[in-house]
Amino acid sequence: MIFINFKTYQQGTGEASLSLAKICLEVASQTGIKIIPIVQVADVWRLTNQGLDVWAQAVDAIEFGAHTGGILPEAVLAAGAKGILLNHSEKKLSLAEIEKILGKLNNCQTLVCTDSLSEGQTITNFKPTFLAYEPSELIGGEVSVSQARPEMIKEFIDSINEVPILVGAGVHTSQDVKKALELGARGVLVSSEVVLATDPKQALLNLTKGFK
User: Fold this and answer.
1) What is the mean pLDDT of residues 154-182?
2) What's the CATH number where 117 sits?
3) What confidence tens digit (pLDDT) does each residue in 39-87 have?
4) Catalytic entry in 67, 74, 90, 134
5) Which residues lie closer than 8 Å to 137 by C-beta, 6 or more apart?
């Protein structure tokens, strides 16, 4: 599995998000590898209305009511999101918020990011669909976590057996992907390597080689 976080990059916003999501679908069809675009909430309906399966980048721990500017989980699901990313290092949540949101999303797939084993073990009790191990200091960097901290990935995966683990932070090459899989990860979470690439399709195809 490859999750592509579009973040709020211009290359993944508005009509550009539609073009990039179609590239993800094309590469998935071509390679047989599951590729999941994670888009801004404002772009969810734009893409799902075109028949594309996408996930949303975040929701808030709120109920129906007076929460101007909040991201209501039910509204994101109504827009057609197939899953939701939570607790990314750029939008951290408290453990109480994560628990509340996951309790509301028990019929929806979820990917929860964590930068530590202790936090990951606690989040596992809330029953997310996937966990992503992402040391925050390596996100957006040149060195992948699978190369810089392979022993940490192994410890993380060996300690958490209940939830499939993804690896994120600094994933740039097929070798990064291959190493993560060898350590027991189910897949990877990436962003800039694909979204900011001059040729996103080729960049994504290069990453898929790590699954072979």
Assistant:
1) 88
2) 3.20.20.70
3) 999 999 999 999 999 999 999 999 999 999 999 999 999 999 999 999 9
4) 134
5) none
Catalytic member of 88, 119, 155, 193: 88
* Strand-strand pairing, 83-86 and 35-39: unpaired
Question: Dihedral of CA 107/109/122/163: which sign?
Answer: positive
Residues for the chain: how many in total?
212
Counted domains in the chain: 1
pLDDT at 28 over 60: yes
Contacts made by residues 91-96, CB under 8 angstroms, sequence distance 24+ = 91/57, 91/58, 93/61, 95/119, 95/122, 95/123, 96/61
97 is catalytic: no
134 is catalytic: yes
> Could you give the CA distance from residue 207 to residue 17 in angstroms, rounded to a whole number?
20
Statement: residue 136 has pLDDT above 80: no
- Domain holding 112, by residue range, is 2-211
- Per-residue pLDDT of 29-45, as tens digits, reads 999 999 999 999 999 99
Instruction: Find where tokens 């404002």 sit.
Output: 42
